[in-house]
Amino acid sequence: MVSNLLIPPWFPPPAPRLADKRSAPLFRYSYVLADGEHEDRTRVICNLPLRNAREEKAFKAVIAFVRNQQEEGIGVTGYTFSASDTFYGYWWDGDRGRWVEDKIVLLMIDYQISLGDPEARSLSEQISDLKEKIAAAYKHYGCKQDEVWVVSNPISRYL
User: Fold this and answer.
1) What is the pLDDT of residues 122-134, one digit of tens each?
2) What one-character-per-residue DSSP string does 1-69 give?
3) Are the beta carbons of 42 and 155 closer than 8 angstroms?
4) Phi and psi of 27, rounded to 5°?
5) Distance of CA 108 to CAs 16, 26, 75, 152, Å?
6) Is the entire prediction scored with pTM above 0.85?
């Protein structure tokens, strides 16, 4: 319950709630129930290696592909990436029997694809295409990857 939480005195009081199904407690378990207008989107997160100049060229080719998707009206509404040397990833190499360190750039891409549009490609097709382009870019610049992680999450952006 809300009364069990320590809320700082500077925290703004909750907005008045409507007397309907949204009048449930503001805090429930580990998530917040929120009123308000929002947009449902999908955020795709790519963990891309960036250890040298060839991988930097591959990364820039991926960015060009993402930008082109928006210009073609495919549903990309924005993207964000981390600076190089910010994240380090580790993966287990079973053949060598050791952990391998990677310098990673996180690329986050927001998609807004209308599910009601029968002409639009599915989000799964978009993500598969993205993953293929990532693999092709790294291979083209001579730094083929065994695997690149690409994951997606539904998100709500509150207006």
Assistant:
1) 888 888 999 999 9
2) -GGGS---TTSPPPPPPPSSGGGS-SEETTEE---S-EEEEEEEEEEEE-SSHHHHHHHHHHHHHHHHH
3) yes
4) -105, 130
5) 35, 29, 14, 9
6) no
